[in-house]
């Protein structure tokens, strides 16, 4: 694979931005934007689920069914992009997830904290990078 350094930098930047845009959309509860980060046949493996969500419509349905009072914040670090070709890459990220139900009567309670990771296989289709498969898992 002969990818020039400028192209490698562009691919890495686009793929990292895609991952960050996806978590931002979830944290802001803009679930349509989150679902739009996935390819038409995209798969989302969520922690504790044996079967993936298949396609943006299923992803959107699952996230829209969450309580509106649930607040999350994803902190993504140690992002590494492995480029397979000019149209395929994998992004590995460590994730700290803070979650809290804002309808909880005890507003002083600390949010739940989980440590996990994303493995995002990304593809470039029609000039746009999309997540073809996300494996999200908790490790601590």
TrEMBL record:
Protein origin, superkingdom: Bacteria
Signal sequence bounds: none
Domain SnoaL-like: 13-135
InterPro entries: NTF2-like_dom_sf, SnoaL-like
Protein name, as recorded: Nuclear transport factor 2 family protein
Species assigned in the record: Parathalassolituus penaei
């Amino acid at each position: 694979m002969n990818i020039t350094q400028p192209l490698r930098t562009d691919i890495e930047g686009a793929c990292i931005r895609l991952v960050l845009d996806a978590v931002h959309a979830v944290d802001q509860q803009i679930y349509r934007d989150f679902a739009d980060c996935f390819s038409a046949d995209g798969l989302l493996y969520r922690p504790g689920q044996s079967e993936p969500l298949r396609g943006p419509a299923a992803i959107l349905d699952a996230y829209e069914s969450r309580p509106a009072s649930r607040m999350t914040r994803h902190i993504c670090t140690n992002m590494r992009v492995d480029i397979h070709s000019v149209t395929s890459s994998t992004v590995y990220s460590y994730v700290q997830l803070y979650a809290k139900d804002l309808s909880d009567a005890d507003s002083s309670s600390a949010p739940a904290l989980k440590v996990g990771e994303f493995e995002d296989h990304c593809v470039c289709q029609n000039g746009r990078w999309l997540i073809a498969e996300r494996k999200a898992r908790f490790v601590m």
